[in-house]
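Quiz preparation item.
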């Protein structure tokens, strides 16, 4: 029976150590080649992780594995809702080779493509791959567009399922995690085969338990330790402005802004200016409760001596039933005049019961002539410290729902045209759906409730405020009996609490459904050319491919701009506003969208054994996107020279590319949350139908050593990417426009200024008070931006000590050293907003780069004696800098909120992180194993970073020490 895939004879594993693996019978397909019958091809820097190797690492989850790989940086996987690159990705996991962006890593299943999710940064969700069926993972650390086409800029990760299984495999594990109910998984598979067929059925289930942020001391810190650690100036208790009647003027401010008198007693921080800052991260989770399963079936059959057929079907589902977030969100859009609002914020009259209680409990806190209070739009949210009583959980966190659904079917025929020629044709369809819910406030309803006209059965202004079915909303701190996170009780009179019915009226559910589909049709003709060189026959592969990518976004009524285009639409049904920003006061609304693109490609490859010791691979691909995107041609040459039995050289030169995915070409926007002037603001990211492919030139050169007990590979790599497909850098736009007050009136900056909506600008781009603290919304675009040049060196070293004290001892280290990650300047509206910089060793906050430590290493020592296998694994991530500290900007500028305006430097360097794992496996005969794994034995916290959770979720691990017990058996 023809095998569908196999390994190189010697596998230098990415996980740490040479692992002997059985090869399939006669056909070898190595990641990076389309030619069947290719023998061991060490010219390609392919690292291999077998199922056995994963067991020796304690069967890590995809996120654990990918974060630990030295070749991978900037991984999406742990909860990271405050970074625009990972928002709304809960339950998903990415691969990001070289830290170039997950968009630049191609992920395959059995050498065939997978669809990317419709998230803001498109990537393949590896959580929903069939882990119970995976036999090995091959990682090609080299650009491979000449073979695979778009996305293979940084490299390829190929998940390959098992063949030849006979009988059942069953396994599972449980992980003990402090302050959590623990994680567990079970998996089962059944394999059976005959003379001409092979069947594999597999199922896997994984459960992650909730880990709250408040259960980790590092994650929720006092204001003076990290003012960026989830502390906001737009909270509740909030900051307000007393209003009085001034003759000849009308209602106007009397006195300055001041903190709600309950700010400090409810856990807030009163700043040097007397404003209130409150903390939201205590309501969040570091790990969401999650249930995930996969079902997989594959069938291979030799229909005749020359024709074989394969079929595989994959279904995966991931569900997060209660994603936790802040009790309510900042209001960034003021209410309309039609409901009694002010262009500057929300008005609370003196007859509001909460206002009356505030004045009664705090005599003299506001002037006696105060007739109302103004809550400025950017300094207020309706609920925070006291939690949200409309949500039934222990703290009143707002909760949402997330679900990922993946269905894939792939089939192909292979025809043996002769002893030396093969023809293969395959078709793959893959659909990925992501559905998620959240909540946002109808701002006009909030204003009506402040005036006493709140509730679903109230007719505004038809009668007295607060009468009949009309309800009051209390915006002051005296609404809360306790700080919901700490349990600290508020002294004073009984709280004037808001009802769940009223909150549910103005804090409404939003829904989003993002669907991506991929259809691929491949045809490949390969074999021997008929020409012989000194090293053997010249092999070839030629083929063609058609891909159709489809994207659709569908939004619920509340967050659909076609249904609720105006601020007062939910109140009066008005749809005549211009411009239309939607009715929701924080994130705003989106329009339904659909986009697709068709891609046509032809490709070819030659394997030329010039001599027995010198082999050359030539490849090229032409790919056409049509329309404004255009086409690209990419060649590649790879060579390997076996100098002697011990030493070999290898290298490659290629051009690669990445075409824009359909969702980035669509004329639509995605709203992200990003920090501006110490508070989150909505930032709209718009698609661009004129995006061109980004192109790259890749170089690699390396050597391999094999002395028997000692094996090593050292490879230098370099990627030179032009016309990068990227989002315009927000921090650069903000810092450039507001670096000099004169820029706000300089005509040269007009177009850049119009990217901003200001709080008092009436929704007109660029209108209003031009100040960073007054920004209510920003527009950014997907563009072809500046260049990116990344370079470094990969190391894999292994030594087999042989028999030591009756057992087998071996050790090794895998490492990546980054030499550079240089980004070119970025321009927005003709203004350079970001200088070129080298991102290696930096956090790269709100830039066009991901965090890229200079060094990442993994080392191991393994000892096998009798039925026991013990492995000690050491993980090291180098320290890296928050470059804002070197620029004196952001959190490292003089702090205006703390007396004396200190510069707080903690977190300027994200310290190096060193953890140790230990795994012990006991083999009960040939069929059953039991394992115990201690991960992060010394219970190290992740290094401090000046981010919301006080660590970098792209790099660090928030869980602390974990103990995992597992078993596997075959029968």
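Solution:
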């Amino acid at each position: 029976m023809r095998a569908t895939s196999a390994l190189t004879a010697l596998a230098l594993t990415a996980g740490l150590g040479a692992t002997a693996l059985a090869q399939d019978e006669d056909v070898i397909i190595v990641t990076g080649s389309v030619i069947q019958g290719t023998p061991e091809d060490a010219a390609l820097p392919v690292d291999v992780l077998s199922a056995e190797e994963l067991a020796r690492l304690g069967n890590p989850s995809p996120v654990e594995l990918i974060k630990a790989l030295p070749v991978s940086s900037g991984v999406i996987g742990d909860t990271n809702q405050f970074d625009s690159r990972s928002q709304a990705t809960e339950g998903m996991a990415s691969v990001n080779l070289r830290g170039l962006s997950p968009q630049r890593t191609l992920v395959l299943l059995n050498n065939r493509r997978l669809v990317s999710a419709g998230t803001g940064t498109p990537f393949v969700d590896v959580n929903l791959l069939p882990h119970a069926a995976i036999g090995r993972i091959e990682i090609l650390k080299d650009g491979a567009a000449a073979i695979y086409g778009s996305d293979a800029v940084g490299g390829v990760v190929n998940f390959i399922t098992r063949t030849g299984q006979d009988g059942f495999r069953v396994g599972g594990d449980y992980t003990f995690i402090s302050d959590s109910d623990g994680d567990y998984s079970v998996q089962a598979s059944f394999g059976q085969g005959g003379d001409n067929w092979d069947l594999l059925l597999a199922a896997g289930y994984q459960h992650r338990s909730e880990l709250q942020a408040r259960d980790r001391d590092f994650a929720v810190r006092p204001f003076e330790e990290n003012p960026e650690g989830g502390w906001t100036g737009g909270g509740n208790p909030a900051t307000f402005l007393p209003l009085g009647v001034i003759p000849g003027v009308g209602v106007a401010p009397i006195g300055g802004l001041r903190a709600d008198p309950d700010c400090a007693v409810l856990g807030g921080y009163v700043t040097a200016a007397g404003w209130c800052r409150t903390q939201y991260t205590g309501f969040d989770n570091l790990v969401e409760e999650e249930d995930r399963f996969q079902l997989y079936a594959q069938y291979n059959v030799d229909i005749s001596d020359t024709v074989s057929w394969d079929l595989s079907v994959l279904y995966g589902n991931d569900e997060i039933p209660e994603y936790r977030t802040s009790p309510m969100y900042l209001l960034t859009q003021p209410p309309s005049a039609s409901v009694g609002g002010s262009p500057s914020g929300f008005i609370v009259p003196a007859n509001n019961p909460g206002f009356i209680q505030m004045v009664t409990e705090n005599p003299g806190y506001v002037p006696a002539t105060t007739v109302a209070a103004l809550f400025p739009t950017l300094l207020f949210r309706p609920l925070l410290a006291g939690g949200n009583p409309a949500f039934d959980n222990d703290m009143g966190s707002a909760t949402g729902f997330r679900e990922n659904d993946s269905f894939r079917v792939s089939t192909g025929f292979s025809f043996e045209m002769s002893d030396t020629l093969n023809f293969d044709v395959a078709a793959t369809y893959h659909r990925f759906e992501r559905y998620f819910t959240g909540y946002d406030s109808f701002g006009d309803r909030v204003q009506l409730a402040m005036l006493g006209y709140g509730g679903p059965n109230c007719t505004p202004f038809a009668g007295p405020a607060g009468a009949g079915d009309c309800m009051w909303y209390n915006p002051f701190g005296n609404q809360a009996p306790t700080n919901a996170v700490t349990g600290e009780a508020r002294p004073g009179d009984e709280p004037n609490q808001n009802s769940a019915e009223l909150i549910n009226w103005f804090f409404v559910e939003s829904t989003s459904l993002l669907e991506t589909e991929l259809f691929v049709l491949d045809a490949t003709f390969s074999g021997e050319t008929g020409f012989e060189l000194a090293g053997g026959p010249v092999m070839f592969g030629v083929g063609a491919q058609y891909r159709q990518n489809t994207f659709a976004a569908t939004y619920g009524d509340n967050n659909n701009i076609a249904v609720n285009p105006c601020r007062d639409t939910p109140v009066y049904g008005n749809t005549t506003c211009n411009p239309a920003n939607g009715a929701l006061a924080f994130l705003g609304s989106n329009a339904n969208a659909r986009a697709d693109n068709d891609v046509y490609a032809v490709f070819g490859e030659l394997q030329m054994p010039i001599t027995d010791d010198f082999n050359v691979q030539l490849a090229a691909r032409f790919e056409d996107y049509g329309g404004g995107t255009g086409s690209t041609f990419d060649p590649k040459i790879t060579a390997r020279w076996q100098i002697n039995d011990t030493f070999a050289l290898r290298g490659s030169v290629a051009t690669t590319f990445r075409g824009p995915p359909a969702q980035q070409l669509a004329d639509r926007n995605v709203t992200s949350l990003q920090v501006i002037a110490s508070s989150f603001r909505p930032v709209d990211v718009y698609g661009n139908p004129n995006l061109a492919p980004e192109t790259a030139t890749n170089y690699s050169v390396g050597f391999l050593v094999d002395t028997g007990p000692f094996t090593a590979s050292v490879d230098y790599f370099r990627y030179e990417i032009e016309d990068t497909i990227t989002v315009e850098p927000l921090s650069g736009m903000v810092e450039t426009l507001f670096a000099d007050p004169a820029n706000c009136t300089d005509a040269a900056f007009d177009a850049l200024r119009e990217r901003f909506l200001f709080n008092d600008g009436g929704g007109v781009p660029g209108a209003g008070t031009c100040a960073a603290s007054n920004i209510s919304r920003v527009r950014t675009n997907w563009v072809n931006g500046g260049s990116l040049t990344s370079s470094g060196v990969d190391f894999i070293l292994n030594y087999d000590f042989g028999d030591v004290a009756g057992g087998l001892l071996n050790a090794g280290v895998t490492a990546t050293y980054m030499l550079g990650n240089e980004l070119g300047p970025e321009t927005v509206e003709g203004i350079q907003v970001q200088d070129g910089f080298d991102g290696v060793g930096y956090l790269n906050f709100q830039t066009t780069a991901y965090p890229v430590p200079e060094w990442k290493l993994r080392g191991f020592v393994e000892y096998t004696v009798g039925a026991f296998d013990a492995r000690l694994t050491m993980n090291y991530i180098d320290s890296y800098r928050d470059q804002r500290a070197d620029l004196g900007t952001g959190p490292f500028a003089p702090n205006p909120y703390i007396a004396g305006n200190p510069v707080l430097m903690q977190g300027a360097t994200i310290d190096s992180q060193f953890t140790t794992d230990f795994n012990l496996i006991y083999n009960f005969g040939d069929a059953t194993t039991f394992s115990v794994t201690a991960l992060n034995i010394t219970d190290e916290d992740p290094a401090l970073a000046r981010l919301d959770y006080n660590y970098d979720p792209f790099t660090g691990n928030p869980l602390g020490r974990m103990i995992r017990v597992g078993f596997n058996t075959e029968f």
